[in-house]
Amino acid sequence: MKSKITAFAIFMVLILGWQYLGAWGFFAHKRINRIAVFTLPKPLFNFYKSHIDYVTDHAVDADKRRYATKDEAPRHYIDIDHYGEDPFTNMPRNWDSAVAKFSEDTLLAYGIVPWHINKVYYRLVSAFKEKNIDQILRYSSDLGHYIGDAHVPLHTTENYNGQLSGQKGIHGFWESRLPELFADDYDYLLPKAKFIEKPLATAWDMVEASHAALDSVLLFEKKLSESFSEDKKYAYEERGQAMVRTYSLEFSTAYHNKLNGMVERRMRAAMAMVANYWFTAWVEAGQPDLVPLQNAELTPEALKAIENENSLWKIGKWKGRPETEVPDSTQQ
């Protein structure tokens, strides 16, 4: 019995890794990409398992680029409620048709995540065809990130941080704070990856499912806040060498329970879909033999590009709308 427990513990460490990064947030994005690897069929699993640290660590590169260029931000969301009372009927799925109806400037202003998922997916297909290790790993990591974002209800609304409903800070609360506190108890046994017939339509399905959960995300937090005083709702915690104001464990637990598994369901759905897209891209590329790439290293050019992106991230400022701050006591 003891050996079985030990084996299971080793397995979970292998899947989850040791890293814990706050700011989903960095934590959830890394976990989504990492666990997606373990749902892949064997030929593809062997390749991704060899590069699991890369697709885990670089699951957050797309967010880092939001510190470097303003063009990155709209790739992470779509404020679908901007487009009327029946937005999923009003919005054409085809990019050119959507541009013709609403203009490219409007689409970029309110987010393009389903179309960008489709674009990165086809970039991954090309990378597989060319057996380009740099691009396979880059686009796999990025695709996982954008798919993860499409599974967050608050990435589908103009009220993305509760700023329109007196709930400022809810974005980071839902997608970062809750996974950081509770994700270790989630169920990560998922079905094997399956082929996606229509990648663009599937990306839109993700957005629609996320948006359907939005009312509960906002309503449950607002109702719960009515029964918590400010000193019970918020707390101060040490992060690094600083004390930061965040949602208290008591309030977070109550909200997480009220959501009744929603965060876990959206994370699990994201994990499964990331694997589905990786698998589909490989199949559409002709199922190339990836054995020669299992131990391949990144080219010096790719390493240099990563170094440059990290440098810009460290010195840059977040470009785009704020999503994670918790209001201070003067804003209540």
Question: How do the strands and helices of this protein lay out in sequence?
Answer:
Elements: H1 2-16, H2 26-36, H3 42-50, H4 52-57, H5 61-64, H6 87-90, H7 95-102, H8 104-110, H9 113-130, H10 133-150, H11 170-182, H12 199-212, H13 214-225, H14 230-233, E1 234-239, E2 242-247, H15 249-259, H16 262-284, H17 300-315
Antiparallel strand pairs: 1-2
In percent terms, what proportion of residues is strand? under 5%
Order of helices and strands: HHHHHHHHHHHHHHEEHHH
Number of domains: 1
Output the CATH topology.
Answer: P1 Nuclease
Could you describe the largest sheet, including whether it forms a barrel? 2 strands, antiparallel
Strand elements, count: 2
Just name the CATH architecture: Orthogonal Bundle
Which CATH C-level class is it? Mainly Alpha
In terms of per-residue confidence, which ranges show pLDDT below 50 for 5 or more consecutive residues? 1-23
What is the overall number of helices? 17
Structural class: mainly alpha
Shape: globular
Helical content (DSSP H or I, runs of 4+): 55-70%
Strand order of the largest sheet: 1-2
Task: Give a brief rundown of this model.
The protein has 332 residues and is mostly helical. It has helices spanning 2-16, 26-36, 42-50, 52-57, 61-64, 87-90, 95-102, 104-110, 113-130, 133-150, 170-182, 199-212, 214-225, 230-233, 249-259, 262-284, 300-315; strands spanning 234-239, 242-247. The radius of gyration is 20 Å and the shape is globular.
